[in-house]
Mycothiol acetyltransferase
Amino acid sequence: MTTGTDVLEVRALLRAAATADGVRPLSEEGELRLQHGSPGGVDLVVRDGGDLAGYARLDDGTAELVVHPAFRRRGHGTTLVRRLVEAAADRPLDVWAHGDLPGSAELLGAHGFRRARVLLQLRRDLAGVDPDPRPELPADVHVLPFRPGRDEDAWLAVNARAFDWHPEQGRMTRADLALREAEPWFDPAGFLMAWRGDPDAGGTLLGSHWTKVHPPGDAGDDAVGEIYVLGVDPAAQGMRLGRALTDLGLAHLRGRGLGEVLLYVEEDNAAAVRLYEGRGFRRFAVDVSWHREPQGG
């Protein structure tokens, strides 16, 4: 675990890299684990003289790394990759390269990594969004805002079923959810829950749309909305809940005075990509997960 001083240094490094590259070098999960730590996580740093030149973090076989723009092309990225491989030992290793920058492909390809997953960031403007959608829902289904302290277990159960195929989202825990509820951006009014029946009298959660607002400077010069998590219980498929929740969430973000919204989707999820692009989203950025099997694996 890094010390408090290390965290401040790393956060300054992250800001410098984001300014230079136009993309955040760590995922939200990586930044939360940097700030709060996590059992079994490994933090690695390299220095150039007395200055912090690079940072990497390894959690459960997945890593992220960043080198300060002022200290690139000096071998610090190579040092971090080698130390990550050593830390992974005889286990497979995945490294996320945010923005799919040319230097990442050069660095990781030279160490036996191959492109394994591609995550697309899509965006669209909110000007054309219906500010008052009234989706047709079954008579016994209604949409309510998330209630902190009451709806966590129901949401986690549906989230796990909706994303049982997803290596990160489907494994979200109560502790992971609590960290996000404590973040300054968390807004239960933008966390929409579709219930069948009364949630306090045996009602069933069918799906949800959790929106997020990035402050100015985080995802653009102005504040930007996000379709953060949109999930429908497999048992509720065919009810057009995904479309209804999407429309309601986008209207909420427009109502916050935002001009743009982003989302992330796996490139190989062709149906979802077609759906979003058909609704006005365009490709904006790419993140790539690079995979390496251990020697002899």
Observations:
- The chain has a mean pLDDT of 93.
- Residues 4-118 form a domain with the Aminopeptidase fold (CATH 3.40.630.30).
